[in-house]
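Field: sequence (string)
Field: structure_tokens (string)

Example rows 1 and 2, in order.
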Amino acid sequence: MPEWRLGRHRGIFCAVSGSGDARRRIRLFADRAASERELHRLNNPRPRDVTVAWIWREYLHEMQDRPVAATMRHTAKALLPHFGDHDPETLTVDQCRSYVAMRRALGRADGTIHTELGHLRTVLSWAVKRRLISHAPHVERPAKPPPRDRYLTRDEATRLIEAAGFPHVRLAIILLLGTAARVRALLDLTWDRCDFERSLIMLRNPDDPASRKRRATVPMNGMVRAALSEARAGALTPWVIEWAGKPVRSIRKGLATAASRAGVAPLSAHVLRHTAAVWMAEAGTPMAEIAQYLGHRDSRVTEAIYARFSPDHLRRAADALDLGVVHPYQRTLRK
């Protein structure tokens, strides 16, 4: 089978193989991305027996420039040893249950397994849309566990900051609490997106337009501005959170060490983002503003999680049930 390479002919991309008299050319498209997808299909023809592993590779090829590709490559390490050789159209509930039992035996939480099988659903649905398979079978998943509701008190947060052993860990904790940003947004943050004149932080990375997660522009409060000013004075790289002249890829270990020193139970960076949102709700901040901080597209999502922390949550409803209060509509009825 010839190996096709991308070429151009009269302004149109084409697939080219061989050379000289044996040279062949297939006209493709004017658009490069569409032409590269077609070239991939020519070099990777559909096998006679389509497998889950094959459609997963096709999915990754199409999504290779998007952040989701890294997630799906990681999930594939767990899923493909179990499902990879199977016909995607004939997957059964028993196979899904077998996978759940296997992952539980390895100590994986139901939340993790729920997400992994959700990724399998995503790839199967994509394959149907691309007509790689005719239908996607039902993928049974364990029930999604309730969201974790842990957040820090202000005393715990203060101790955590004081216990941070390295400047970059301390800065990360302050920014997580002071901006309610996702940790990846902060690790990607560069100094050109910190506007000290207007006291604003632009969390959205203009070089990553394909990101699925929305990122807000948030104001610097006093704590954040002071920490950023100190860090900028000694900055060695364009990245805000750096260590030894390099950008930081993870603060997981640094956060675990700080929590241990502070006498705080182990926590993830997401707990700090959740803490920031709870504090805003407890202060009576409108849900629409909290949603903007968190980058939620729909404030109803924010309200479903954080409204109960607001001091005014259900207050009017509770007052309506108070027998000791005479309400305006009751006065009207009495007249």
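Row 2 begins here:
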Amino acid sequence: MNIQYVYILGASHSGSTLLAMLLNAHPDITTIGETAPGRMGDINTYLCSCGKLIKDCSFWKRVSRKIREKHPEFGLDNFGTRFELPSNAIVNRFLNFEHRGIFLECLRDTVLQLFPRWREVQRDIGARCYDLTSIVLAESGGRIFVDSSKLAHRLKFLLRIPEFNIKVIHLVRDGRAVALTYMKQDEFADAKEPASRRAGQGMAGEPTADSLPMNRAANEWRRCLRSAEHVLAELEKSQWIQVHYEELCRDPERTLGRIYDFLGLNTGHTVADFRSIEHHVVGNGMRLDTTSQISMDERWRLILTEEELRVFDREAGKMNRRYGYK
């Protein structure tokens, strides 16, 4: 069975969880957020967006039971859907490179073909991705699946799964705002309430990411955008749409209507209180917030120093301006 699969592509902390949850409020759309979440920490304390421990969530219990019938190794702490080859550092290094254009992607594929076991593992991971998606859709009653994984090199391999009819939402946010989240993730890229941060464990939990200085943060954002551009260049224009985080926050109904039209859905659907809809999302900590109020986060304008702004402009200002940010 072919599945309409929508992939949110972009840099981390660009609003993908917000967008995924807004889309999840449409009766035809289902999401679990990221389909290959990393660093979930202690599964005994990890919270589903429904507010329950993920291991106690009835939705995830049903999904786990059904997928284990086909893939006994499936676990809530490790879906087994990451494109990687266990215990092979060389292969995994090549797999984790960002998408770098046609020539270097051909080189990556050539190197991977030198490892015969990779071909089998890639098929198995693809099968797990398909089965996870189809089971989640069956459990939720949706017909369109949204994946907020964002990574361009993950999209490369998902595009090779023949049962997926993939469309892409390229989500863009001002690089200065994103860079701030890389510098101080706990404060600027997690749940609003400190008690809900760090996968629901509060500030006593393990940090979800290392803090970066501005030069590395700016380059990380620029690298993600460049990687996204490479994979988009290989798609038909009808396969993808670009959405800015800022326009989503300023006019969510109009922006969502444009996305619904792109997906062939009823553009008149609106949900003011999107948090009232049942969500079972993993990934970014904002899934645990309780308010449905959508407000644009532009704290970077107050927080970043003049020197940090100069560093950002030196490293990534040209790309930021190319996406319309002055």
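free_text_note (row 2): Residues 320 and 326 are 8 Å apart (CA to CA).
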